[in-house]
Amino acid sequence: MPPARREFDRLPLSVAAAVLETLEAIAENPRQLGKSLILEHEGRFSARRGPYRIIYELIEDQRIVRVIAIGHRRDIYRRR
Q1: Ordered structural domains, the chain, with CATH
Q2: What is the Cα–Cα distance from 34 to 25, expressed in whole angstroms?
């Protein structure tokens, strides 16, 4: 199982539902919702949902949004 899926499964139910809504919005328009990241996260995007962040990257030629990580903002940028 991918790490982001495990992180999603560990979220409280109410947070997981909100994150799922955000993931659906990202799938519709990934550049509108997320912000581009810099430094060691260059090429990736971050979307907010309350105190949680979804880190993802775009594979443009295949029209794929690959979720890298889901977690609380205090932890999410340190681990990757």
Answers
A1: 3-76 (3.30.2310.20)
A2: 10
Sheet with 35-36, strands from edge to edge, namely 35-36, 44-49, 52-59, 64-72
What does the alpha-carbon distance between residue 29 and residue 24 come to, in Å, rounded to a whole number? Answer: 9
HSE, CB side, 13 Å, CA atoms: give it for residue 51.
Answer: 6
Q: With contact defined as beta carbons under 8 Å apart, do 37 and 48 qualify?
A: no
33-68 tens-digit pLDDT: 889 998 888 889 999 989 999 999 999 889 899 999
The model's pTM is 0.86
* Cα 32-33-37 angle, rounded to 5 deg: 95
CA 29 – CA 56 distance, rounded (Å) = 13
